[in-house]
Predict the structure of 1,2-phenylacetyl-CoA epoxidase subunit PaaA.
Amino acid sequence: MYTQAMDLMAKEGKSEAPLLRSAEEIALQQRFDARIDAGEFMEAKDWLPENYRKTLLRQISQHAHSEIVGMLPEGNWITRAPTLKRKAILLAKVQDEGGHGLYLYAAAETLGSSRDQMLEALHSGKAKYSSIFNYPTLSWADVGVIGWLVDGAAIMNQVPICRCSYAPYARAMVRICREESFHQRQGFDSLLVMMQRGTPAQQDMVQDAVNRWWWPTLMMFGPPDDQSPNSAQSMRWGIKRISNDELRQKFVDAAVEQAKVLGVSLPDPELRWNEARQHYDFGAIDWSEFWRVVGGDGPCNRERLSARVKAWEDGAWVRDAALAHAARQTERARRQA
Ligand code: BYC
């Protein structure tokens, strides 16, 4: 009877009180911390603290969702690409994004969540995906700008993840970054052709797309460091190697120079070189817009989610057929054994 009080203490939600742990668990934790401090990579078979596992699962599954939701804005232009060459490039790029989603779901599965669970979280609106994919692609120039700015920002954010302490994620990122680099270059090339050889109307179309995508791209890096609840712990664990603000700054510095080559302006009157800092200063980001979009109220959130749910429902017969085929194969193998 007195032992019921032990349950009660747990229920009272004294979550800040340190958990009582076994000596074995403490030793495992110490070994994990030492390996992290030594810059080692963790594998799926290693003992991992529960919060490290949860944080990775959150980030990798969100990343996977971003890849497959990210197929939608560009997929919108496959049937309207202006030339056969551009259409072939865009098809390959959108397929690559689907592939990135698959590598990442596979990496997340090693942490103990099933793909069905992750997709359920996406379809029910519980899981996040990158804010950037909730903006519409209004013209062909948007496809080039997504390649140049959005994939450019993605590379800036993802190259450090190739050194993430969790090896299955890091390995997936090495391959993804190589492909992202091609994506960024095809976008830049498409814009350069329009800016250098296009009509004034095409040049205006590029400038309009840059104006619409610039600020949402800066938001992709996440909230400022002092408002980023996950950063400190993720940096401590070597999941994140460079902070949100530092990556954003590196991106701005690179993009300003690239914009000069393209001959487009960036929609920020406060953008100027700061000799003392050796970086470009830039204007204030509208974080209320960011949180609104992350919270589900961006220009295309509903459209994106319903497209993913429809794809899942329309694909039910494929999953059923694959399962029926696998069951038949197993049955045949059993009879022949
Ligand atoms: N959008 O504490 P913070 C691509 C959330 S795919 C939505 O800084 P963290 C591509 C954050 O999740 C690009 N939500 O978090 C694909 C957290 O909420 P929860 C995708 C965002 O995790 C197809 C809260 O805000 N890239 O490039 O330490 C075609 C507080 O933030 C966003 C990745 O996923 C956002 N932008 O840092 C073309 C990269 N930012 O989860 C291109 C991997 C923040 O606590 N992920 N939030 O409820 C990361 O590097 C990190 O997760 C982030 C955020 C830097 C994004």
User: Anything to note?
Assistant: The radius of gyration is 23 Å. Residues 2 and 8 are 11 Å apart (CA to CA). The first helix runs from residue 4 to 11. Residues 5-15 have pLDDT under 50 and may be disordered.
